[in-house]
Amino acid sequence: MPNFDTKLAAFRTKVKTGAKPPVELPSMPSAAALEVAQLPLWPDPIRGVPNSVLRSALFGASKRGKRAYLQREPVASYEGTTIIRTGPTLDQADLDVWEQCMHLARTGGLGNRIQFTAYGFLKAIGRGTGKSQHEWLKDAFARLASSVVEITDGARTYFGPLLHHGTRDETTGHYVIEINPAITPLYGRDGWTSIEVDQRRALRGQPLALWLHGFYATHAAPYPVKVELLHKLCGSSTKQLYHFRAELREALARLEALDWSWKIDDADLVHINKTPTASQARHLLRKRLDGTA
Question: Average pLDDT for residues 181-197, to the nearest whole number?
Fold first, then answer.
């Protein structure tokens, strides 16, 4: 068997004769060198949600019932956004859970572990804390973890699960959950919207009103939208547009409690007037000053 010196001499000969030396692989950066992804630090009464999520049927206005399981199915979404989903259909209650997860993650940096109790989490989203609600929460986390999405919003794309993974202590109800830090680009500048928790809770149990609230919250000054487009974007299970229009009128009437006003004109266009948030008001002012409004 050749000894080490013989092998080393052979290697040097190869180098001299033009043979390529082994490629040196780059070393992996240390954990300290990795930058922690950070969500915007919105205040406690607010939930920050990507516009691409609120302007689509990803968390639809579906009613209670059996959930479909989709395999790489496109999700109805607003222009400029494409969403492909694999997993169970998600509703507005699932959105409450996902919003709260992102809310907790905003202060620790995505990828870090967020810890909470089931009791505290349920209280935070305005639900009861009995046994049935604890079981519902388990189901909601399972749905989010099994939902793999591909969301493209302009030049930004995220693909992966909505909930990375987690653990649960069955004795104490203590959860430890992680969110994929790769989702951060969806919260880029002008890529997300502030949702007021109190307003959303006032609409609880009204899936279409909740979806409309989120959709129109993404617009500083909403422009008219066809009833047919809203029917598509909200993921309604109501087949006939005639029946959906009646449901839409009822849902819009519930938004009047938020000091919103609305009408559906003869061209079947929905008009919404609402007070913009502080950041939206600044956005509208900049547009007027720039002459683009």
Answer: 91
Given a contact cutoff of 8 angstroms between Cβ atoms, the answer to whether 220 and 282 are in contact is: no
**Cα-to-chain-centroid distance, residue 144:** 10
In 3D space, the residue among 153, 253, 183 whose CA is nearest the CA of residue 213 turns out to be: 253
Residue type, 102: M
CA angle, 265 then 231 then 69, to 5°: 175
Residue 168 CB coordination number (10 Å): 15
- Ranges of each domain in the chain: 46-290
Read off the pLDDT of residues 9-24 as tens digits, 9 standing for 90 and up.
554 555 455 544 444 4
Closest CA to 182 of 205, 202, 207, 157: 157
Residue 128 reports pLDDT greater than 80: yes
d(CA 65, CA 83): 23
Quickly count: other Cβ atoms within 10 Å of residue 226's Cβ: 13
| CATH number for the segment(s) 46-290 | 1.10.10.10
> CA-to-CA distance for 285 and 293, rounded, in angstroms?
9
Cβ count near 185 (within 10 Å) = 17
Neighbours of 234 (CB within 10 A): 28
**Is residue 120 a contact partner of residue 172, using CB atoms and an 8 Å limit?**
no
34: exposed, middle or buried (Cβ count in 10 Å: 0-12, 13-18, 19+): exposed
Residue-wise pLDDT for 65-102, tens only, equals 789 999 999 999 999 899 999 999 999 999 999 999 99
Beta-bridge partner residues of 152: 82, 157
Cβ contacts of 200 within 8 Å, gap of 6 or more: 47, 96, 210, 213, 214
